[in-house]
Design brief:
Elements: H1 3-25, H2 28-60, H3 62-87
Length: 89
C-alpha cells in the first residue's frame, strides 16, 4: 500500500470515528463532518484505484492510449472550433 492509499484509508477511518463520536455525544455537526470526511476518504480510494488502473492500461497498451489521447484531442479541438465559429456571427 503506497502513501496515497494509506491517506485515503486513514481519512475514511478518521471520518468514521468522528461520525460515531458525534452520534454518541449528540453533536450533529461533528457527526456530519465525520460523515463528510469518511466520504472524502472513500472518494480518494476510488480515484486512486482509477489512477492505478489507467497507469496499468497505459503501460500494457501504449499505442492504444496514444490513439485515444489523439482522438480526444481532435474531438476537443473540433468542438472548440465549432464554438468559436458561432461566437463570431
Amino acid at each position: 500500500m503506497d502513501t496515497r492509499h494509506a491517506h485515503a484509508v486513514a481519512n475514511e477511518v478518521a471520518g468514521e470515528a468522528q461520525h460515531l463520536a458525534g452520534r454518541l455525544l449528540g453533536d450533529p455537526a461533528m457527526g456530519l463532518a465525520g460523515k463528510a470526511k469518511m466520504l472524502y476518504g472513500k472518494s480518494q480510494q476510488a480515484l486512486n484505484n482509477a489512477a492505478d488502473a489507467t497507469r496499468d492500461n497505459v503501460a500494457d497498451k501504449p499505442m492504444t492510449a496514444l490513439g485515444l489521447a489523439a482522438a480526444v484531442g481532435f474531438a476537443l479541438g473540433a468542438a472548440w472550433a465549432l464554438n468559436r465559429g458561432k461566437s463570431e456571427d
